[in-house]
Amino acid sequence: MARSLFLFDMTFWLYLASLTLYIAYLFARRPAMALAPAGHPSEDFDERDGAWATQLGQVATLVTVFGWMVNTAALMTRAFERLEHSGTFAPWSNQFEAMAYVSWAIILGYVVLELRYKIKAIGAFVVGIGFIAMGAASLLPYRYQTAEPLVPALNSYWIYIHVSVTLTSYAAFAMAGGLGIMYLFKERAEQRGSRSRFYAAFPDLETIDELGYKAIMIGFPMLAFGIILGAMWANYAWGGYWSWDPKETWSLIVWLIYGAYIHARMTRGWEGRRAAIYAVFGFLMVIFCFWGVNFLLSGLHAYA
Amino acid sequence: MNSRQDTLTEQDTPRTPAPGVGWEEFSRELVAFFASIKLAMFLFLFIAITATIGTVIQQGERPETYIQEYGEEAYRWFLRLGFTDVYHTWWFTSLLGLLCVNSLTCFYKRFPAVWRSMKQDKVSVSLAFIKGMKQQTEVTLPGTKESIAQQMAQHYVAKGYRVLAKNEGGEVTLYATKGVMGRVGAHMAHLSATVIVLGGLLGSYYGFQEFGVCLEGQTYHIPRGNFDLKVEKFWIDYHENGAVKSYNSTLTVLEGGESKMTKTITVNDPLVYKGIWFYQSSYGDAWDQIEVARINIKDKESEKVVKTIDLEWQKEQTLSELNLKLAITDFVADFAFNSTEKKVYSKTIEHANPAIKLTVNERSTVQATPWIFYQFPDLFEIKDSKYQFELVGYKPKKYTGLQIAKNPGINIVWIGSTMIVVGITLSSFIYHRRLWTKIIPSADGVTVHVGGATHKSQIDFQKEFRRLSEKIRTFSA
Questions:
Q1: Distance between CA atoms of B391 and B305, rounded to whole angstroms?
Q2: Residues of B in contact with A239 (CB under 8 A)
């Protein structure tokens, strides 16, 4: 147990380091971005940075990737520990492991996003959320962090797929939430006519908006799939595919909230600011579904 | 799920002003209302908000529980509004029904257009239409319109587009489209809501869910399936640290006395026979049976324990040296007495006040059946007996809690579930792209106008369009 806990701890510090580096990167960039044509997140942004900022950005990426690898190692170590003690190897079998998995998925999502769109400024927000998830996990009492054997209801192959799919959708919504916060920051700066180098490094509003939308478009079908896998599991374990237990009801609520968002995007006026606020609100609901329900409401998922 | 693009093309159809409010106008308004995205958003959010009620207020509790926690006045309101069983109230069900109506009307109104665009699409558009698009470019190339059109069409096809072309009025118009499945997916998801609700209704009308407390060795009749179920065995497996690993029951299905199937069920692994599912749902201590009890036999005069024996359930034991025959003939976990029926029963299933009924036969002259209490050893005394009996401990029989359910709607629910997951996935990851190209001969070759539209993924489309316009520049005769 100690081995995986050490690795989880290390992940936490590495994510803290990478978050700090991304924030430093934002401050180090020159405000030349204002000259870039709006709506063109071009690949040659880095050339506009000072050499110092570019290096900082590279280090930030490296530390993030390394942190993610340590996170992977921690989850795998935990999987082996579970295999020895509890008859399953899913490293997302309690709240702590689930949080660690969510931050793993968030950081993976972020790294893919950075490689694909070459926008490092997002790191300060999205890696920030990944870091907070990891930090919240490590704040849990020790007895939540260990790999206790699973209760009989959880001891099933369904745990591999239902839990991982649902948690991955949470990670996507977390990314959308981070991008929403970023949008609101950037928009406020633009309205005040801020020439701060901090905001200049951000991609333009339209890009942030679109990326946030994309993250939700990934999370939405995944959550649907996760809920349905849960229903199938419930049909095997509880004797009914839907029993309006607080956890499943809340996951449905979250799904409905994003369903409304996706339909809203089809109508005019639901991009930009409104969508960003909504994405942040949706993410808060995800947090409640993930944390609040477990600690505040009782139900069949009480063990999760 | 529809886009601005359709409103763009639908504007062409002129509206015929109807005199007064005719049926046609009314029905058109009605369809527009029920198919509207606004209604969908309202329903999504309203269902989400009302669904929280049942997660905050415990559902299906006894009245006392609510009164204790919220007070009498609040409870009266709960009953009026159905808050003690929110998800089965008429108004919550109506919301779900309305969502089905909403999605079906949307399908009815918008799917035909999607279907048409799968079959054929509007090729001829005006130059102003192309120039007015969000993504558009204009290039002048050397060559004839036919050869350029040929190259462009080949490029579109290579990129996975379906291409339609028209060569008339001295210009070539190309229409290229890709990813219409994204829209089909959205409509598939719309239909799925109704499929799932229908499956749910079928299950709630023709299915059932019951809970049975069963004891090892007993046979139970399942009237709904017209067969019997025998619980052969029940046991619990433990982890090294003493936590419960699994609990298991071996069940045999008997039909007309004949054994049809035997299966050991455990949590997550039910038995299914004739569409009826038997789940291992829980276990616990039985409240009317025990396995064994330990009894102290005290001599009344000396007040000394002369013997301690373990008595098995309903098995007479003879103690010849004490001239005693003893048997446990009954047990209650929480002793209570019904004075009108003169019957002993267990008030609850908790082992709050356990007692055994001991049948005593002493020297064949004294016969008695006293209730012996675990907590009150001195309560009963047999007058003519030399002995006093004390219950010092017992091992309760474990019952196995079986959930018995039948749900004829379940497969329909799974069909709907598959539709919703496949549908949303298609509509999330595939986006409908349409490109219109006009190639018009000019003084030094041809002028190519390209315009493109998508209803989402603007960034990706923008990139794709940029690459496309760079590619076009390389075309030549």
A1: 12
A2: 209, 270, 277, 279, 281, 403-405
pLDDT averaged over every residue in chain B: 86
Contacts across the A-B interface (CB distance below 8 Å): 135
Closest-approach residue (CA) in chain B for A253: B48
Look at residue A35 and tell me whether its pLDDT is greater than 50. Answer: no
Domains and CATH numbers, chain B: 4-10+21-111 (no CATH), 120-179+431-472 (3.30.160.110), 206-286+401-421 (2.60.98), 287-395 (no CATH)
Whether the CB-CB separation of A267 and B38 falls below 8 Å is answered with yes
Q: Which residues of B touch A298 (CB under 8 A)?
A: 58
**pLDDT tens-digit map of A50-105:** 677 788 888 999 999 999 999 999 999 999 888 887 667 888 888 889 999 999 99
Q: Which residue has the tokens 């996760």?
A: A226
Interface test with B, best of A154, A262, A270, A301 (most B CBs within 10 A): A262
Q: Give the count of domains, chain A.
A: 1
List pLDDT tens digits, range B319-350: 888 888 889 888 988 888 888 888 888 888 78
Containing domain of residue A243, as a range?
Answer: 2-303
Partner-chain residue, chosen from A152, A242, A263, that has the shortest CB–CB distance to B247: A152
* A295 burial type by CB count under 10 A (0-12 exposed, 13-18 middle, 19+ buried): exposed
Q: What is the 3-state secondary structure (H, E, C) of chain B?
A: CCCHHHHHHHCCCCCCCCCCCCHHHHHHHHHHHHCCHHHHHHHHHHHHHHHHHHHHCCCCCCHHHHHHHHCHHHHHHHHHHCHHHHHHCHHHHHHHHHHHHHHHHHHHHHHHHHHHHHHCCCCCCCHHHHHCCCEEEEEEECCCHHHHHHHHHHHHHHCCCEEEEEEECCEEEEEEEECCHHHHHHHHHHHHHHHHHHHHHHHHHHCEEEEEEEECCCEEEECCCCEEEEEEEEEEEECCCCCEEEEEEEEEEEECCEEEEEEEEECCECEEECCEEEEEEEEEEEEEEEEEEEEEEEECCCCCEEEEEEEEECCCEEEHHHCEEEEEEEEECEEEEECCCCEEEECCCCCCECEEEEEEEECCCEEECCEEECCCCCCCCCCCCCEEEEEEEEEEEEEEEEEEEECCCHHHHHHHHHHHHHHHHHHHHCCCEEEEEEEEEECCEEEEEEEEEECCCHHHHHHHHHHHHHHHCCCCC
Q: Residues of A with CB below 8 A from B59's CB?
A: 244
B275 φψ region: left (φ > 0), alpha (ψ -120 to 50), beta (else): left
Q: Answer whether residue B210 shows pLDDT above 50.
A: yes
pLDDT tens for residues A245-298? 889 999 999 999 999 999 988 777 788 889 999 999 999 999 999 888 887 776
pTM, two decimal places: 0.83
Residue B209 has its nearest CB partner, among A240, A267, A297, at A240
Is residue B101 packed enough to be buried (19+ CB in 10 Å), middle (13-18) or exposed (0-12)?
Answer: middle
* A303: closest CA of chain B, how far (Å): 14
Angstroms from A249 CA to nearest CA on chain B: 7
